[in-house]
# Entry
Amino acid sequence: MTRGELGQALAEAGVPARQIRMRAAQLWHWLYVRGADDFDQMSNVSKDLRQSLGARYCLAGPEVVSEQVSADGTRKWLLRFPAGGAGRPVEIETVYIPEDGRGTLCVSSQVGCTLTCTFCHTGTQMLVRNLSAAEIVGQILLARQRLGDFPDADTPAGAIVPGTGRLVSNIVMMGMGEPLFNFDNVKQALLIAADGEGLSLSKRRITLSTSGVVTMIARAGAEIGCMLAISLHGVRDDLRNELVPVNKKWPLAELLAACRAYPGLSNARRITFEYVMLKGINDSLAEAKELVRLLKGIPAKINLIPFNPWPGSPYECSDWQTIERFADVVNRAGYASPIRTPRGRDIFAACGQLKSASERLRKTERMRAHAVLTETTGPH
Ligand code: SAH
Ligand code: SF4
# Structure
């Protein structure tokens, strides 16, 4: 709920008008600062009101179907939400990536995806439905609960978490789904995440990644104001049409024009361009040069993502040397271009590997997944 909706709910639960602001602030604090998941924990709220709210509303988060922890400390949760119009309960994945000094939560926006990027596992799962704002915020609350990232909570023994600062310090809308095809819910959830009296994540630590839904980029800038990432992956329309089919609707020239117009860009606030390294497909030095030319004038950083394989995926990851040479060209042109160390590949939590398919033979898939991984993880 937005603050306004919460006020409305309190009015309906019988709270007198003059108390609404105060009560809404109390609830907000319990939910987002203290991490309460039961009205009965709210000790400064009267018993009557707690009961009245408990009879009307539910604070339950998603059901945790599984939690996997990678050798590198990355955690992946398979989460189940009620049907919500999909006819049956739905499942999505959320990933936590601990690093030195920060902890990034990769959040899903849809169950499946309408788009069919050829290198992405999620793209092979048809869209089941959008996630609600509550289900998006619920992923953040759940991660913080499981990590013991609320006052009076304990971090699980042996968990790898950042040595300093908050355990969930950054949010990336880079899980399952295309966030700009679920704009209203994503917007509401991110504004709640950024609320200074609640979860209080700085908008500079919230990044929304899009495959290039050009018509919504300006609204994301104006109405959410978070950082932007673009899944670029190709520097020519013919190739990008194939890799990221949404390019047929909004080609590169339009996409880059929308990026140039994104509000608040500066050297300190850059757009991230994601570029997956596909062997023999998009990894030539000529393409590195073209990338630099295309991004001219846009405050940008370029994330080179080694391709992460999944069962049946039609590509291979570029050789490490090729990736380094590609990165050199980009670096020499003055762009930071970190090569993303794949995180959580052993539990299928890396970029582009997320998918849920309750109806499938999970065990067979897992076995095949294991075979693919042991074949291709190689030197990195
Ligand atoms: N749908 C949005 C958000 C997902 S972000 C988008 O496409 O931007 C996930 C990132 O991982 C995207 O940049 C996506 O293109 C990239 N990706 C997808 N499959 C991948 C794979 N197999 N290996 C590496 N990166 C992949
Ligand atoms: Fe959807 Fe993004 Fe995967 Fe493309 S890369 S299929 S837009 S989740």
